Amino acid sequence: MSHLTCGFIGLGLIGGSVARALKQYIRHVKIIAFDISPQTLSLAEKEAVADVTASGIDKKFAECDYIFLCAPVKKNDANLCAVRKIMKPDCLLTDVGSVKNGIHEAVRAAGLEKNFVGGHPMAGSERVGFANSKASLLENAYYILTPTPEVSPEKLEHYRKLVSDMRAIPLILDYRQHDYVTAAISHLPHVIASSLVNLVRESDSPDGIMRMIAAGGFKDITRIASSQAGMWQQICLANGENISALLSGYIRALTSFQEKLEQKDGDALYRQFEDARIYRDSFINASSGPIKRSHSISVEIPDRSGALAHITALLAGQGLSIKNVGITHNRESEDGVLKIEFYTEASMTMAGKILKEAGYSATVRL
Predict the structure, then answer these.
(1) CA neighbours closer than 13 Å in the CB half-sphere of residue 300
(2) At what angle do helices 188-203 and 240-262 cross, to 10 degrees?
(3) Are 182 and 99 in contact (CB under 8 A)?
(4) Model-level pTM?
């Protein structure tokens, strides 16, 4: 695709990452951007992501082939009204929100259904803002498209190809199905993780012994509780009906598990864990979700002087860049004592091979 003009209303982590991916992978793309932060626009120009910046949703966007709505959801109504006044007739509108019901209703009310395909890049980071955006954030992540019934098959296909060209994986869903699916695999897990962290916080002793030794499984399943509170507040309010329905099912599942536990039903408990293990192991190992998975390995090392330096020197000698190194003071899991995080999955895989060949017990964390 060539000579493409894309407009961005909002240029945060996701909008910025989409813009960077377009710049990196699409030839002759022109990007016009508006953001309420002058600093963000200045940085986008400095880093050659934005070719043109705007002080508002004005006539500069009239030449756009695509306009990405990347501002907070509560701004959509006003932004759609402004965009409708200046967009050309064949411009395709899209968004990047994780809940689709509201934007589809707003698009319908604005009479823009022929121009709209909802978009949800299932990617994210603990860090926010344009400064932390990167094209690789979309790589191999599912990018869900939710077309309206009125949008043409040609427009949808062009957008699907554009998403694919950005190295993401396009998946077309009805917007109602999207909201139910993401409630189950994204929104509910955040509710559960936050609730579990708060349960431990409230159950902890005054000297904080639970917090001190928290490791292994607890950290793994509560990592997403570190996400932005304001963002998840808005997601829950926007997709509350689906989340509540699934939460009721989860509560019933917990009650059933509690009954098996109290009855000491060993066979039922085993089936519970085994069925979950089999289903979990069938998941596609893709780098998607609101927070991307960590490219890290855990290594058993002897508690002696120079052991850590030897491992890092071994990896650096092979040209591998280490993102982070952490020491686990609790050996309750098989993962070991040293956690090494890498920037890419390829580096992680290579590091695991190098360390095993050197005689270390290294576990790739999936």
Answers:
(1) 11
(2) 50
(3) yes
(4) 0.75
